[in-house]
Amino acid sequence: MSLKKRGWMSLTLMGFISFYLVVGLPKPAYAMHIMEGFLPVQWAVFWWVVALPFFVFGLRSLTRITQANPELKLLLGLAGAFTFVLSALKIPSVTGSCSHPTGTGLGAVLFGPLTMTVLGTLVLLFQALLLAHGGLTTLGANAFSMAIAGPFAAYWIYHLIIRCSGKQRIAIFLSAAIANLLTYIITSIQLALAFPAPVGGFIASFTKFAGIFAITQVPLAISEGLLTVLVWNWLQSYNPQELELLKLIKRETESNESV
């Protein structure tokens, strides 16, 4: 079976899973995405204003990638589908809320944080419209936490670890796990800014919001890191040409020459 056919099979599988999540699980969403209408108007507008420039620059980055290397479109779709599926899996947390993975670390490592800003924001838009997961007024806030802060952290951590140690799988694991954790830290900050506690203000409110998700989010971040490493291993085995094109792995001929 050709590599292209394997790639299409992977996207098809992701599509079936996504369809099941949309149609087969029609349950109310009480997830960590900030729900529609929850933020005060001034904060909803503020986060939209903050997120929009990243999205615009991300569109330019995405356009450059697809024009320079059209063969990477399939891998872009896979990164977006990976984020959609993982971030739609809601795990029950305390107080009746939910935690979930984010899936943004993989795309940030592959294509950079700006491109992942676009993919992550589109994922959040479709989830808001199809799954009632998040919302349109809160899209700016959710995009900043999951599609901007998380991917930028993943990208920086990956390259820092590669430069310091050269251990790629550890870099992949930590970039995915920390992107997950940072998403929820940023969300907790957003909620604390919008709803400071009467006693203790921002700090007390942040401690409350962050503590709600700490029990489930830490093991989820570790699990997401391990899953991302497995997907990375699969890509190295079946899609090495794309990773070579992105300069994330060396060509085997180069490796053999250097031995």
UniProtKB/TrEMBL annotation:
<feature type="transmembrane region" description="Helical">
    <location>
        <begin position="209"/>
        <end position="235"/>
    </location>
</feature>
<feature type="transmembrane region" description="Helical">
    <location>
        <begin position="111"/>
        <end position="132"/>
    </location>
</feature>
<keyword id="KW-0472">Membrane</keyword>
<feature type="transmembrane region" description="Helical">
    <location>
        <begin position="139"/>
        <end position="158"/>
    </location>
</feature>
<comment type="similarity">
    <text>Belongs to the CbiM family.</text>
</comment>
<dbReference type="GO" id="GO:0015087">
    <property type="term" value="F:cobalt ion transmembrane transporter activity"/>
</dbReference>
<feature type="transmembrane region" description="Helical">
    <location>
        <begin position="170"/>
        <end position="197"/>
    </location>
</feature>
<keyword id="KW-0813">Transport</keyword>
<dbReference type="GO" id="GO:0043190">
    <property type="term" value="C:ATP-binding cassette (ABC) transporter complex"/>
</dbReference>
<protein>
    <recommendedName>
        <fullName>Cobalt transport protein CbiM</fullName>
    </recommendedName>
</protein>
<keyword id="KW-0406">Ion transport</keyword>
<feature type="transmembrane region" description="Helical">
    <location>
        <begin position="41"/>
        <end position="62"/>
    </location>
</feature>
<keyword id="KW-0169">Cobalamin biosynthesis</keyword>
<keyword id="KW-1003">Cell membrane</keyword>
<comment type="function">
    <text>Part of the energy-coupling factor (ECF) transporter complex CbiMNOQ involved in cobalt import.</text>
</comment>
<keyword id="KW-0812">Transmembrane</keyword>
<dbReference type="InterPro" id="IPR002751">
    <property type="entry name" value="CbiM/NikMN"/>
</dbReference>
<keyword id="KW-0171">Cobalt transport</keyword>
<dbReference type="InterPro" id="IPR018024">
    <property type="entry name" value="CbiM"/>
</dbReference>
<dbReference type="Pfam" id="PF01891">
    <property type="entry name" value="CbiM"/>
</dbReference>
<comment type="subunit">
    <text>Forms an energy-coupling factor (ECF) transporter complex composed of an ATP-binding protein (A component, CbiO), a transmembrane protein (T component, CbiQ) and 2 possible substrate-capture proteins (S components, CbiM and CbiN) of unknown stoichimetry.</text>
</comment>
<keyword id="KW-0170">Cobalt</keyword>
<keyword id="KW-1133">Transmembrane helix</keyword>
<dbReference type="GO" id="GO:0009236">
    <property type="term" value="P:cobalamin biosynthetic process"/>
</dbReference>
<comment type="pathway">
    <text>Cofactor biosynthesis; adenosylcobalamin biosynthesis.</text>
</comment>
